[in-house]
Amino acid sequence: MRILIGTNNRAKTKAVITISTMYYPNAEFENKDVPSLVSNQPMSDEETRKGAINRAKHLMLENVDADFGVGLEGGVKEIDGTMYVCNWGALVTKEGKVFSATGAGVPLPYEIADQLKAGAELGPVMDVYTNKNDIRHSEGAIGIFTNGLVSRSAMFEHIMLLLIGQYELSKKLLD
Ligand SMILES: O=P(O)(O)OP(=O)(O)OP(=O)(O)OC[C@H]1O[C@@H](n2cnc3c(O)ncnc32)[C@H](O)[C@@H]1O
Predict the structure, then answer these.
(1) What is the CA(82)–ligand 1 centre distance, in A?
(2) Less Cβ around it within 10 Å: N or C end of the chain?
(3) pTM attached to this predicted model
(4) Does 69 contact ligand 1 (Cβ within 6 A)?
């Protein structure tokens, strides 16, 4: 099993490897920096989902050797005046089948939401807010606002389960 990962982000990579090796112990992985073709800070479920799918599709355009490619994308969305982090994943198979899944979201404080509405990106804003570096590679905003209970990689691990579950079901249905 050969799996391509459409990012160099450490939290996303950890999630892909952790869940994939549970199901495919001999899996080989390769990270590739692929374009999401959406804005640096996606501002809706639609845009964030599209970013994940674009990343996964791009991986499989370039490399037909792999069994599947995974794209993971983080963004935000606003509901009734509250901004939430939102997260999407996509798995594209070598046959070109596309599976998608969404993950957990938590509300962001208004002071952070206001900065994003003014054009800032969540990653750097979270680093200033927490006085830490590269939060997006570790616990992420979701880790900070759940008091460490759900890290960014744990959240993406759940998305990976949803993706691999759909992929395995589709293979079973073909048998
Ligand atoms: O290298 P890539 O794969 O692009 O990973 P990223 O974390 O930089 O980028 P995303 O496209 O997933 O997310 C868009 C922006 O939102 C930020 N972001 C999203 N979810 C986050 C989280 O949980 N914590 C901190 N920043 C987050 C992220 O750092 C980007 O600035």
Answers:
(1) 19
(2) C
(3) 0.96
(4) no
The per-residue DSSP string of the chain comes to -EEEES---HHHHHHHHHHHHHH-TT-EEEE------S-SS--SHHHHHHHHHHHHHHHHHH-SSSSEEEEEEEEEEEETTEEEEEEEEEEEETT--EEEEE----B--HHHHHHHHTT--HHHHHHHHHT-S-GGGTTHHHHHTTTTSS-HHHHHHHHHHHHHHHHHHHHHHH-
Q: Domain residues for 11?
A: 2-78+85-105+150-174
Nearest CA to ligand 1 atom 27: 123
The reply to whether 111 falls in a domain is no
Decide: 59 in ligand 1 pocket, CB within 6 A. no
pLDDT in tens, 44-102: 999 999 999 999 999 999 657 899 999 999 999 999 999 999 999 999 999 999 999 99
Ligand 1 atom 28: residue of nearest CA: 123
